[in-house]
Amino acid sequence: MSHDRPRISPLPESEWSDDLRRLFEPTRALSGDRVFNVFTTLARHPKLLQRWMVFANHVLAKSTLSARDRELLILRIAWLCQSEYEWAQHAVIARLSDIDAAEIDRVRLGPDDSAWSPHDAALLRAADELHAQAKISDATWAELAKTHDEAQLLDLIFTVGQYNLVAMFLNSAGVELDPGLAGFGAPSPRS
Question: Does this model's pTM top 0.90?
Answer without folding.
Answer: yes
